[in-house]
Predict the structure.
Amino acid sequence: MFGRDETVRCANRSTKGTGIGGIRQCFNNPATVEVTVRYGDGALEFDTHVLCDECGAVLKGDAHSHGYSVTTKRLHGMTSAQERKARVKANAKLVELGRVYHDGLALDKLDAILSENGFNTLESAIYCGRDGRSHEQVGERTWLSLTWHKMEQTGRYEIVAYLS
Ligand SMILES: [Zn+2]
């Protein structure tokens, strides 16, 4: 009865065996994210794993290097105070993104800022066109506003992103 550990553990922990997909394993971390990797057009073929932050990031990098799309979802919600704090932190970084021009929409950088602050990452592949705007829910009480503009001359992108 005592000391029973009910915590859901990372599916890629080394205490369990060989892990998933041959990616680097953690020792025995608690699970914090649900990572879905989509192959091809992703409609039929996908895998979902419950992982720790560390393995989630490794899997994501590995999947991206194979050209697969990845979405991550937090398993545990934040309190509204935590979420507010996380928004402020993420917004400080998002402002930096808006100060430089990008070769594309910088979705990897956006995703990195979102996930390191505890928000869900973006559904990719819905962003296209020279000018655009999107409004996407990334947390229980948090939405990302994203607008972009492709510069006529250089072909580079201007991005304005913030959470509210
Ligand atoms: Zn792990």
Summary: Residues 10, 12-13, 26, 29, 51-52, 54-55 surround zinc ion (CB under 6 Å). The radius of gyration is 17 Å. The longest helix spans residues 80-98.
